[in-house]
């Protein structure tokens, strides 16, 4: 028996020691990968910068060596807008780079919004002025978004059997009124402003006239911008483009070639031959393609060091109680405070890409932006969406810059609460009994389902009136913040507020935006206001986590999300939208839906 226990104990000890050894070995391998990622990359003569669109597009590039592994639980499966813009800028003066190859064969369905696409497209137009070439190819067919980006190319090529889809801007919204009624739940909505359609999907079966009006306005503006851009590059009138699209005349590669939307119908090997010819590489030699991630590791002759800094503070994602790479939390206020107090930071660019969220957290961040603007130039740069709470945190800036395809506005607040009296009492069979020391101790009822935010009863008239007062006061505060930031009266702001969503073009017309442009435009304005000329460098905030620590976090707490993203791929966003419905509850300053214009 003793030998049995000794053998068992030894086996257990061996497993534990072996596990630690494997863990140690894994950490050493990971550290090796991370250290090797820091090594400089040498760019060969006659190289072509290959920009692939096979990952989702984030505002900020992550210096993460695991991104290239494409394994579940590692890397972010995204590419940074800043990384692409910086690579194009560097390639403009790099004699070893002969041109740019837009390889959109594997374009990710969620690769960026139209505003981000516009920023890349504008940078590519700058690159063309150097006389270097830009060519694009797609093996599987151009989506509308991909085609708009690549329309700036000198030459566009497509696989003979691939499709090209130009359909116009449109989509559907899902309404939950009947579903909620079927399960015995009722949405209790308190809102301000006729255009604050944030909660309509919970108490209507279709879009209200006001919601349709504002949607068609900003969708129409963006579509017109896209058509205009294609028209200018391809020499086809806007009217003719609309005519072809309405007739569904463009389906396959041959159609696109016939109507001058592309320049050639070729296979991949033929595309490679074209690239060899453009780069003067012999047929028996390998093409010298270099990716954005590798090119970022090559020496940059334009790089400079200066003690003067322009801090680009990234505010990306919904506004809530926790800060992460994809969400905005109260910690962002601390980041802005540190930038304000740092004497080497001469100006701040607040890059906002957010549909809004918590009204309280928005106000916490607003306060720090307001304080910073009193001490140094603060420029707001709006990405794809900077609406509701996203506009709230941007409004104290000295100058608000937005891309012409940015979605903004939605100045309003709503309260959304779910009552499940029918579900809880009649369908499930729970009963509740209230008690309390004061008149409103049981305000709103209880939440007997625990994990689901559904109350046991409807609000009383008094409770609803109290909440309406809170919402009205919140809206008044929002108007005050915007009016002060825009140097306008509250009455003037109310006329363009009321929850209405605007395209940046219209927002500039009504005074909510000052300048149309991208992140680089905002940085240029910050430089001028700070009087820096060319003596400055860019620092990105908040500081990103160390990739090793990020991996440990994945293993210990965030692996579930990573694995879901890996397994679900592009469909993860639908899962995420379903999960976020619960987050729409309470008092919010946010867009209620994800605007996807493909």
From TrEMBL:
SUPFAM superfamilies on file: ClpP/crotonase (SSF52096)
Localization terms from the record: Membrane
Catalytic-site annotation from UniProt: 196 (proton donor/acceptor), 388 (nucleophile)
InterPro entries assigned: ClpP/crotonase-like_dom_sf (IPR029045), Pept_S49_pIV (IPR004634), Pept_S49_SppA (IPR004635), Peptidase_S49 (IPR002142), S49_SppA_67K_type_N (IPR047217), S49_SppA_C (IPR047272)
GO biological process: signal peptide processing
Signal peptide: none
Alphabetical UniProt keywords: Hydrolase, Membrane, Protease, Serine protease, Transmembrane, Transmembrane helix
MF GO annotations: serine-type peptidase activity
Stated family: Belongs to the peptidase S49 family.
Protein name (database record): Signal peptide peptidase A
Organism: Marinifilum flexuosum
């Amino acid at each position: 028996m003793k030998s049995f226990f000794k053998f068992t104990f030894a086996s257990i000890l061996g497993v534990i020691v072996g596990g630690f050894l494997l863990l140690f070995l894994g950490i050493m391998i990971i550290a090796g990968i991370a250290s090797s990622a820091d090594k400089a990359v040498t760019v060969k003569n006659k190289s072509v910068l290959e920009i692939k669109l096979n990952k989702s597009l984030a505002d900020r590039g992550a210096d993460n060596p695991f991104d290239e592994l494409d394994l579940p639980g590692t890397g972010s499966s995204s590419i940074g807008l800043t990384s692409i813009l910086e690579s194009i800028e560097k390639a403009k003066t790099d004699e070893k780079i002969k041109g740019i190859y837009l390889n959109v064969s594997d374009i990710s369905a969620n690769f960026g919004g139209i505003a981000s696409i516009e920023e890349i497209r504008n940078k590519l137009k700058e690159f063309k002025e150097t006389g270097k070439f830009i060519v694009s190819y797609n093996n599987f067919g151009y989506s509308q978004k991909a085609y708009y980006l690549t329309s700036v190319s000198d030459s566009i090529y497509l696989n003979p059997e691939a499709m090209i889809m130009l359909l116009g801007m449109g989509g559907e919204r899902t309404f939950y009124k009947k579903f909620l009624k079927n399960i015995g739940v009722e949405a209790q909505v308190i809102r301000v402003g006729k255009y604050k359609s944030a909660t309509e999907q919970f108490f209507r079966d279709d879009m209200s006239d006001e919601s349709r009006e504002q949607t068609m306005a900003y969708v129409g503006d963006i579509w017109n911008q896209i058509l205009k851009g294609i028209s200018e590059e391809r020499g086809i009138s806007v009217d003719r483009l609309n005519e072809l699209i309405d007739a569904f005349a463009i389906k396959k590669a041959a159609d696109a070639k016939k109507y001058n939307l592309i320049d050639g119908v070729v296979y991949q090997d033929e595309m490679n031959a074209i690239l060899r010819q453009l780069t003067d590489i012999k047929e028996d030699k390998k093409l010298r393609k270099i990716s954005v991630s590798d090119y970022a590791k090559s020496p940059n002759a334009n790089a400079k060091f200066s003690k003067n800094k322009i801090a680009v503070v990234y505010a990306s994602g919904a506004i809530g109680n926790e800060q992460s790479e994809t969400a905005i939390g109260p910690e962002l206020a601390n980041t802005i405070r540190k930038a304000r107090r740092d004497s080497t930071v001469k100006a701040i660019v607040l890059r906002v890409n957010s549909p809004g969220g918590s009204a309280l957290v928005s106000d916490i961040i607003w306060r720090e932006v307001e304080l910073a603007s009193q001490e140094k130039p603060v420029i707001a740069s709006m990405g794809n969406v900077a609406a509701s709470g996203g506009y709230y945190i941007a409004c104290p800036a000295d100058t608000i810059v937005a891309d012409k395809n940015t979605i903004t506005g939605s100045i309003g607040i709503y309260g959304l609460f779910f009552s499940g009296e029918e579900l809880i009492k009649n369908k499930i069979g729970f009963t509740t009994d209230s008690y309390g020391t004061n008149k409103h101790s049981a305000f709103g009822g209880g939440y007997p389902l625990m994990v689901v935010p559904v109350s046991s009863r409807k609000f009383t008239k008094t409770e609803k009136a109290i909440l309406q007062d809170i919402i009205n006061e919140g809206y008044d505060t929002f108007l005050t913040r915007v009016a002060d930031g825009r140097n306008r009266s509250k009455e003037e702001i109310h006329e363009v507020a009321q929850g209405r969503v605007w395209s940046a073009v219209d927002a500039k017309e009504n005074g909510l935006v000052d300048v149309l442009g991208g992140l680089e435009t905002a940085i240029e304005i910050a430089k001028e206001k700070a009087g820096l000329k060319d003596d400055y460098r860019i620092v990105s905030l908040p500081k990103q986590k160390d990739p090793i620590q990020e991996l440990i976090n994945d293993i210990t707490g965030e692996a579930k999300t990573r694995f879901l993203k890996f397994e679900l791929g592009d469909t993860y966003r639908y899962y995420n939208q379903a999960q976020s419905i619960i987050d729409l509850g309470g008092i919010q300053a946010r867009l209620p839906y994800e605007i996807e214009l493909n």
